């Protein structure tokens, strides 16, 4: 159990991350018929904080977290998306179907809908970007996500190594510059041992009866190597998704012959990674820039 000081700091970090005013996207486009099958686009706003100038901006695809539960949607990442846009990136903030309702005990995720949506969004993105964000260069795409969204980012980049009978499998790797996963739920077995997000990964896969059979289709730690440049950014003081989860993924990747970057931030918890007011968010933007430019 965390001590009182650690718990208070974590609460303050969460409050700060959710304190920003909502930021409306420049364009919202649908990739399907369900209300949650939409993507918010933020046009790049080059200025003093821009990482680099240029006629076309790298595209950052963002997948939000929230334990795959319905009460957390893409809007809480609007300020983070705007922060990246102000640094010169074009940003696509993806929504997807999550737990069935917004109550505190709602099941996490929807099988297979959550995975169907992320795959469909990524497949539809090139055409949608061409219409919604002509300032973007899809040849320089970086995929990022936070917490449960970090899981989905790693999973989406690994579709070409899914089991052959997986409906989301692709013939080859995605055309990505890389993945930056932020405090990702990257190893379901470790996450379950640590009771991450009240056993959200167990719920995502349908419960104890289907957890083992569905893991090979969904758990990033079982989908390495991918051959795609990958960096994990993790707060060492994270009480929501402890660093042991990210470290387990990085270790598994190394054993599979793939080096995954792991940036550990001292005295940083779960939410500063997506909080524009936090120094950790600048570290995240730099990690993205290292892959994108």
Automatic annotation (TrEMBL):
GO molecular function: hydrolase activity
Residues forming coiled coils: none
Annotated stretches, region: Disordered: 1-31
Residues of the BD-FAE-like domain: 57-246
Keyword match Transcription regulation: no
UniProt biased composition (Low complexity): 1-10
Cross-referenced InterPro entries: AB_hydrolase_fold (IPR029058), BD-FAE-like_dom (IPR049492), GDXG_lipolytic_enzyme (IPR050300)
The protein's name in its UniProt record: Alpha/beta hydrolase
Source organism of this protein record: Streptomyces argyrophylli
